[in-house]
Amino acid sequence: MIYIGADHRGFDHKAKINEWMMGRGIAFRDMGAFEYNHEDDYVDWAVVVCEEVARDPGKHRGVLICGSGVGVSVAANKVAKIRCGLGFEPDQTHAARKDDDINVLAIASDNTATEKAILVVEQFLVTEFVESESHLRRREKIERMERWERN
What we know:
Helices cover 48% and strands 15% of the residues. By secondary structure, it is α/β, with parallel strands linked by helices. A five-stranded parallel sheet has the order 2-1-3-5-4, with helices on both faces. Helix 1 (11-23) links the parallel strand 1 (2-6) and strand 2.
């Protein structure tokens, strides 16, 4: 399942990405915002999306959209089991999935045209993590950091 959320600055991008996913039969759940509210906070949408992804982080993925993409990324990465990366190009997003096993994608609506955002989301959804020794070792180090373990 793909969970998607956006604040007011990502609201229009989210609607277009939802249309794109619906047109391709991709199973997704819109977690909000459901109406434009200039006063909403990106943190709220990041939390609801990431709580769902964290229930089964190997199976579920999330897409978060705010103005810079950084706010939702910072908030998302505070949730255990979430590895969120800011995607701005399809090839960079491919590498983030393949090498770093991101399970949540952050998009900067202020700096990414809708058409490019859809290409970035597509690359995020079609790319699988490559379980090489180095990738697994790095992911384990990150997981230990979540548990405040060293070495």
